[in-house]
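Why do we bother with holo predictions? Because pocket geometry can differ from the apo form. Keep that in mind while you read this record for NAP.
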Amino acid sequence: MTHEGTTALITGANKGIGFEIARSLGLAGVTVLAGARDRSRGEEAAARLGAAFVQIDVTSEESVAAAAEWIEKEHGRLDILVNNAGIAQGGPTPSRTPLETTRRVYDTNVFGVIAVTNAMMPLLRRSPAGRIVNVSSEVGSMEMASDPESPIYALNGVSYQSSKTALNMITLCYAKEFAGTSIKINACSPGYCATDLNGHTGHRSAEQGAAIAVRLALVDESGPTGAFLDDGGALPW
Ligand SMILES: NC(=O)c1ccc[n+]([C@@H]2O[C@H](COP(=O)([O-])OP(=O)(O)OC[C@H]3O[C@@H](n4cnc5c(N)ncnc54)[C@H](OP(=O)(O)O)[C@@H]3O)[C@@H](O)[C@H]2O)c1
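The structure, written out:
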C-alpha cells in the first residue's frame, strides 16, 4: 500500500527511535517532517532522511505554535503525528528523586505531548484519516509494574515510569474524544532499545523499536484506536 500524499510529523526525529520511525515512514511513501528541537541536529538528520526539518521543542509553547503554523502554510494539513520526543531522568528511589527532575520529565513526556497534540489537532482534523501515535513504554503499565512475575516489577522510577502511565491515559482520553471520527489515537511500546536514552543498554535496535509506531501510524480504517500495543499485540494498561 502506498502512502503518497500523506504527511507525518515525528517529534524527536533527529536520532534514536524517532529517526527510525521517520526513515520507515519515508520508505512507505509518506512525506516526512522531521521534528527536532535543535536546528543543526535536526537539519543534519533531515538531510540524511531526505525529509523536511521542523524546529519543535515540545516544552516551548512558541516553538510548538510556530511548527503548527509552518505546517499549515506549507502542507495545509497533517495526516500522522508521532509524539516520540521523550527524556528519561530519575533519582535513586522515588522519595529521593528531586521534584524538579519529575517536573522536567513531565514537561517533555506528558505536557509536551498534550501541547503538540492540541496544536496539531486542527491540521489532523483536515486529514481524511488522521493518526496519532504516542511513543509510550511498557514500564508505564500499572498492571505489569504491580505484578511480581513481570520483569517490570523490579523497576521503580517515579518520574519516567509515571510519565508513561500518564501518557497512556492521555492516549485513552483523546481516543475517546475522537471515537467515531476518522482520527485514530494509539500508544505503543518500542521495547528496550539501544539508544542515547539508556546509554545504549537496550537489547533491541532503534529500528526494531520503531516498527510498532510505524504500523500504528499507517493503520487503515479497520485499525485500532485507544489501544496500547507492542510488536506482540495489546499490552495491559
Ligand atoms: N530506548 C528505549 O528503550 C525506549 C523504551 C520505551 C520507550 N522509549 C521512548 O521512545 C522515545 C524515543 O526515545 P529514544 O530511546 O529514541 O531516545 P533518544 O535517542 O534519547 O531520543 C530522544 C529524542 O527526543 C528528543 N527530545 C527530547 N526532549 C525534547 C524536547 N523538549 N523537544 C523536542 N525533542 C525532544 C531528543 O532530542 P535531542 O537530540 O535534542 O536531545 C531526541 O531526538 C521516548 O519517548 C522514549 O521514552 C524508549
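Residues 7-234 form a domain with the Rossmann fold fold (CATH 3.40.50.720).
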